[in-house]
Design a protein that fits this description.
This protein is α+β, with helices and mostly antiparallel strands and 148 residues long. The chain contains 3 helices and 7 strands; from the N terminus they run E-H-H-E-E-E-E-E-E-H. It has helices at residues 14-21, 24-30, 113-139, and strands at residues 4-10, 36-39, 45-54, 59-71, 75-80, 87-96, 99-107. It has a 7-stranded antiparallel sheet, with helices on one face. The N and C termini lie far apart (37 Å).
């Protein structure tokens, strides 16, 4: 089955990256518009990612699901449904030199037309997202809706 895999180096401590990935404020600062995220003491939780007036068509997008695992400064894993299947998005954080390697993997797509189209879109989207995260963390630049 198809899957997505990206990795980037961000010159920042993994504690900062983890905080950005595990809070609503963190996601909304660099990528989404009105995300809701709640992590329970056992490391599970709920996430709803939201984009308002997104893209050229200015559409509203909402998707989310369960947070399966959240290990401070190491792992953040959640599910959502960008196609017809529920997929699992995993962020792994690893200290490297004077920063953090951020690895992203998304699995669970089926070999259907709808899932393959979603996989292609998310492959490009997650690559862009990691770049936006890097630019935000390293330089304080927020790039959303053609504004810098």
């Amino acid at each position: 089955m198809p899957y997505i895999k990206h990795r980037t180096y961000i010159k920042a401590e993994k504690e900062l990256i983890y905080k950005i990935l595990t809070t609503s404020e963190g996601w909304n600062a660099w990528f989404t518009d009105d995300t809701f995220l709640k992590i329970y003491p056992d490391g599970t939780g709920d996430i709803k990612l939201r984009w308002i007036d997104y893209g050229i068509d200015k559409t509203n997008i909402e998707d989310g699901g369960k947070i399966l695992e959240s290990i401070p400064n190491r792992t953040f894993i959640f599910q959502w449904s960008p196609g017809e299947s529920k997929t699992t998005v995993s962020f792994q954080l690893e200290s490297y030199k004077d920063g953090t390697l951020v690895s992203l993997k998304e699995t669970g797509y089926l070999n259907s037309e709808k899932d393959l189209n979603a996989c292609i879109g998310c492959a490009a989207g997650w690559g862009e997202a990691l770049t936006l995260l890097k630019v935000y963390v390293e330089h304080g630049i927020i790039y959303k809706d053609d504004t810098v």
